Amino acid sequence: MNKRRIYGMFYLRFHGPCLWRRSAEEQAWLDVAPVGREFGSPDFERLQVLDLYAAGEMSREDAMRMLGLDSLQALQQQVLAAGLIVPDR
Fold first, then answer.
1. Residue 56: per-residue pLDDT
2. Among 13, 29, 34, 71, which is 20 to 30 Å from 80 by CA?
3. Phi, psi of 87 (to 5 degrees)
């Protein structure tokens, strides 16, 4: 009988409404829509690599390798299609 009472107290403590209730401010932060073109995109990794390449933080060889491209022209076409400026390197 004592064991059931103790289990019941722990269950209510960890599964009761007082522990999992969120304030309106916390819920508002959780409901915020993501910002930026990469977030929520199915090709996030590709856009991230193109951004790093366009910013000059990644070499063209590394970008081509990570994107699985075999020519510089294909890389430049992807950068232009993403609306980025092609670096002159």
1. 86
2. 34
3. -70, 150
Asked if 44 and 38 count as a contact pair (C-beta separation under 8 A), the reply is yes
Residues 72, 74, 78, 79, Cα dihedral to 10° = 20
pTM confidence score: 0.53
Q: Are residues 72 and 60 in contact, defined by beta-carbon separation less than 8 angstroms? A: yes
For residue 20, what are its two tokens?
A: 């999992």
Give per-residue pLDDT as tens, 5-29: 888 878 877 766 655 667 788 888 8
Residues in the chain: 89
Long-range Cβ contact pairs of 34-40 (< 8 A, separation 24 or more): none
Q: Residue 78, Cβ neighbours under 10 Å: how many?
A: 20
The token pair that represents 5 in the structure block: 């009472």
Instruction: Determine contact, residues 82/76, Cβ cutoff 8 Å.
Output: no
